[in-house]
Amino acid sequence: MSSVTTGIFFIVLFSILLGAVAQRIAGLGFALLIAPFLVIILGPHEGVILVNICGVVSSTLIVGRVWKDIDWSMFRWLAIPSLFGSVPGSVAAVMLPSAPLSVTVGAVVLVALSVSLVLQRSSVVVKGNTPKVVAGFTAGLTNSMAGVGGPAVSAYALLSRWPQRQFAATLQPFFVVIGLMTLIVKLSLDPTDAPALQWWMWSAIGVVIVLGIFTGEKLGRFIKDDHARFFVIVIAFLGAGAALVKGLMDLLV
Asked: Do the Cβ atoms of 228 and 217 come closer than 8 Å?
């Protein structure tokens, strides 16, 4: 567990602010936006843990704002399978060395984003409960390993034509569940993976998340969902590519 300098922390703080804004506007994007950068800044173990912590906090704060739009039946079909994906993914993440995990984080985000872009143009429509189970399990697995659970359920939403409003709302309690499960398993296996932040840093993160959600709520009135998602995708591609390159370079050293 390494300490975080003040300069690096403010970069982390800015990333979290952008992630919280994106999360409130588009319903997801927090982890996609910040995971690759936090992996580069803090390392893959501490970086993903911080992504999980911030994700749980931001989604918890948003739940109350979108409660009436949450599809609880869909939530159950996604959340229960996700728990079975979170456990093996968390164990693998704790056991993997830093360089391979950096490569994994970058690759998972890049593949997930690419698949999501392809599916946006797909005319295929999926039905039934099996796709929900697969999406939930995959989200739990990728969230625990790379801090990114949104793309799997986004792919399902695109293929099932799930309305954006209900989709964005239902993701919030879902992210809380998979985030908490991941944190419980990871920190039980290795408590030293927790980021070494001072108390004021944790307080600042909380304030920034609230500020980001508030800002996103205001901006959401003027920004279309597809524009917000495009911004998230572009930034996430850059970050994921950087994380992948860094991991590969570390492997070669």
From this structure: no
Render 51-118 in DSSP notation, one character per residue.
Answer: HHHHHHHHHHHHHHHHGGG--HHHHHHHHHHHHHHHHHHHHHHHHS-HHHHHHHHHHHHHHHHHHHHH
Query: What are 211-246's pLDDT values in tens digits?
Result: 999 998 888 788 776 776 676 667 667 767 776 777
Q: Measured between alpha carbons, how far is 189 from 192 in angstroms, rounded to an integer?
A: 9
Q: How far is CA 146 from CA 139, 175, 201, 215, in A?
A: 10, 14, 23, 26
Q: What is the pLDDT of residues 126-185, one digit of tens each?
A: 889 999 999 999 889 888 887 777 778 877 887 888 887 898 899 999 999 999 999 999
Report how far residue 1's alpha carbon sits from residue 8's, in angstroms, rounded to the nearest whole number.
Answer: 15
- Domain ranges in the chain are 6-252
